[in-house]
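User: Can you fold this complex?
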Amino acid sequence: MPARVEVPVDKYRGAVRQVTLGAGPDAGGTRKRVVVVGGETGLPFLGFEGSVPNPPVVGIEITAQPPEGWSEPLHEAWGDSVMADPAAWAAKAEQAGADLIFLSVQDTGQHQLSATEFAARVKAVLQATGLPLIVVGPGSAERDNELLVAVADAAKGERLALGRCEDKNYRTIVAAAMANGHLVVASSPIDVNLAKQLNILIRDMNLPLERVLMDPTTGALGYGLEYTYSVMERLRLAALQGDEMTQQPMICTIGQEAWRQKESRVGEGMPPEWGDWRRRAVLWEAVTATSLIHSGADIVILRHPQSVALVKQNVAELAAAYARRV
Amino acid sequence: MALSGLAIYKLLPKTNCKECGFPTCLAFAMKLAAKQAELSQCPYVSEEAKAALEESAAPPIRLVKIGEGDRALEVGNETVMFRHEKRFYHEPGLFVRVGDDEAPAAIEAKAREVANYKVERVGLNLRLSGIAIECRSGDAGRFAAAVEAARKGAGEVPMLLIGPSAAVLRAGVERATPRPLLVAATKDNWQEMVALAKEKGAPLTIRGDGDLSALAELAQQVKDAGIEDIVLDPGGRSLPDKLSQFTALRRLALRNNFRTLGYPIISFPGEGRDLENEAIAAAQDIAKYAGIIVLDHFDPAVAYILLTLRLNLYTDPQKPIQVSPGLYEIGAVKPESPLLVTTNFSLTYFSVAGEVEGSGIPAWLLIADAEGLSVLTAWAAGKFDAEVIAKAVKKFDVESKVSQRKIVLPGFVASLSGDLEDELPGWEVRVGPREAIDIPAYLKQWK
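Assistant: Here's the predicted assembly.
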């Protein structure tokens, strides 16, 4: 009888920071549910070492104005009338199993929302759902600042997450979050050192790191997934090894990336070996999400209710046996 | 683990006879450690040293070959836990399982579909590896007919033969393609399975029940009985159990150099899951250490997704798939056709070239040397700036081939416009769409 096989177990010094999204009435907000992410003391779902106190959560992306350029299966899933009404959409997303709502705004339409209009829509969403909310601007420094400052003020105390903070454009958003009890999403372009640097800059403005989520920039399956995957593994290993500036929970905006690829957007005239369009599109999103959960994602933002269900089921299976063991 | 140069030196004669072609034994040892010399170059090496060196040179996870010929599959010989540490080398084989409870005609048709499935991505043809045939009837004759039908449909692709006993598998081996993987030896039937595998020169799967100590004992027995090409099924079926067991096996092999379990791993992500959930379970297997993945469903959309994921994760992180920089003609270009510039990351190139092609509007595509990075990554790393683009314009003699003087930048690097106009006097710099998919619309309004 050979000796007992001892599995090499890694014990890490560090852990991922716990971050709470949303504030209930006891904490100055109106959320019916708050979501805690992070806290891992080992690699994702490795049952024989570390723990995953807060399994990854799924957010559903909705838009402040009817989205432009979204793929047909998404319109089929939500319905155009719902997609024209962010409050109705948020309620439907909650029913579809979202743990939180991710509200984005595009500036490409005929009408650019004013700060007041945008803040009013955020308020309407907050009334329609009890879930925590992440609010992301259109992506240009000037407009982000204009819109997010108004939102931060209008939703004071709700503990929203505001994004995206980038190295050239973080001060105003961080200040607005700090003044109104919100969090920020710190976004860097698929690079460990840039991610760390941005966290340092934000901390230096005295926003506690318990109020920072890290967005490493998502590459979809077939479109740079491997870069995101490896940068996230490196960030997570650094976090566990005790590097304090990499210990933020990670958020991946999967839907935005997966659904803009040809595989998801185009149904007609594709090679037959690409298979059924709707199945392909949903799984393109779901597999991007579950792969990045294995590399350390704490929050995945999705667009299609069916991939939400698949990813939640996957996380539940990974987490259930985990709970049994620890 | 491989021995260091100094450790090897201690095993050499230390006579500095130079007959190996190197000036000293130490120099020879260093070359051996760097795998730039062969031990056989030393005429005086002792048997003991030879054994020690061969042992240390063997990969910690054995490379196992299934099948023969062009489509043979080699798995194992991985060297890292995380792809950023070096790279993942041998892509896991994807097999589709059929059962001998299905009609032979159905088996044949499915096998043909699986074997012929091929999808092109970034200039590569991606394929599934082969067919797994399972004996569910318990009947050797029926199993043999199923294997025959599968071979008739699939041709000479690698095969997995799955069955409860050596007697049943033997009937299949006779009709299977060469070197099929036998699945599986257990603590109860391993002797007869080993006998069959030895007789047929076939690799053998051993199956445990989740206990890695018991699996190691079985592996040792099978190896002592003369089987070298082993594949492991540690027994876990839930996703977290597989994640833990596969990770533990890879760590034991790489970190502890535990040769007894240094073999590739087989996974069965289906087994009761529906198509979508099976796809997600298989994606975990691709990322987390499976060498052979046996699917219970065949669907082209899922195959395309899994093959794409495999390609992504098994790409060398140090060496993105690249195309050669240059001035490419897409369609029947004329000197006055539009000129677009992008990077030499293969995915970028194929996405852009594909859209230009699809637009029906011929265009010049200038591929700058951005060290194989995509537009945004290259830009962030300073590998795709105005200087790099201007250099490409000169190097590939764009001004003599293209008569118009407008160059279109990818939308993501609009900020380079000003610098590029400074670098390229006489050119108008235009900003194109951010996404390749929007190129046709852009080209239609290009003047």
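The two ends of chain A are 29 Å apart (CA to CA). The mean pLDDT of chain A is 94.
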